[in-house]
Amino acid sequence: MLEPRLNSVQCSSPAGLHRVAYKEWGDPSNPRVLLCVHGVTRVGDDFDHLARALCAHYRVVCPDVVGRGRSGRLRDPAYYTVPQYVNDMVTLIARVTAPRDGARAADGVSWFGTSMGGLIGMVLASLEDTPIRKLLLNDIGPVLDRTAMARIGEYIGQDVRFPSFEAGAAYVKAVSASFGPHSDDEWTKLAADVLRRGDDGQWARHYDLCLAQPFCAITPERADQDESALWDAYDAIRCPTLLVRGEHSDLLSRATAEQMAARGPHPRLVEIAGVGHAPTFVHASQIAIARDFLLN
Fold first, then answer.
1. What is the domain extent for residue 24?
2. pTM for this structure?
3. I need a labelling partner for 180 at 20 to 30 A (CA). Which of 11, 21, 49, 251 fits?
4. Where is average pLDDT lowest: 79-83, 143-147, 182-186, 259-263?
5. Residue 126 belongs to a domain with what CATH number?
6. Do the domain assignments include residue 43?
7. What is the pLDDT of residues 197-229, one digit of tens each?
8. Hey, CA dihedral for 258, 260, 264, 268, is it positive or negative?
9. How far, CA to CA in Å, does 6 sit from each of 9, 25, 112, 185, 282?
């Protein structure tokens, strides 16, 4: 099945209920499930190429994390944090792994996480009785470069609007240059996935600008505590793990990646040349890396 199905699941936060939208590719009765989770301002549509390549083998589920894309927004932006996202993904996994029409229930999921999606997967994979059976971390680790985080926090909170799609697409290309070389058509899709036209005719990025609030609340002391907690989580992971790093990444340093390879789940480390943060897995050579890990 080469066309996705759109669905959503109701989740909860301390501030109330919200919906998490997701795309689902492949045979709906396939018990092999791959969950693909995007970066902080991106959406599940990022994985369209990867999902098409793998949906003959997996039922590929690509959510829009709450606050992004087709999903709902949180009533209290303070909960735009990894623990809330983990809770939402547990609810989603319970939905997509339940038995369907007499087919057997899925025995856990494989996880592909880019940037923020990798952090969510890292924490979930560390928990006792985790549903994650294989974990691919795309350009993310327990150490988050402070300069890169400040850059991301400043970028996501800006209420930037564009008079035309073309102007918005040029902006997305400029701020996403670290994704590496892409064709004009690929850049157009990367922009179209995250731009929406408002009632005023202006184009804007398709996420809640309040996502920036938790970034702004991080103190140096809190950052140190979070890093220590992430290392503890990483060291508790026991499932097969692959770590992918963009050669020029400013979020995952080579030193951190090498440290990760030597501890915790002892992942194989693959570095993609000519790319920063983060590889998009749009190109066949990158998709082959994921395919080799997930299918073998």
1. 5-143+228-295
2. 0.96
3. 21
4. 143-147
5. 3.40.50.1820
6. yes
7. 999 999 999 999 999 988 888 888 888 899 999
8. negative
9. 11, 9, 19, 24, 21
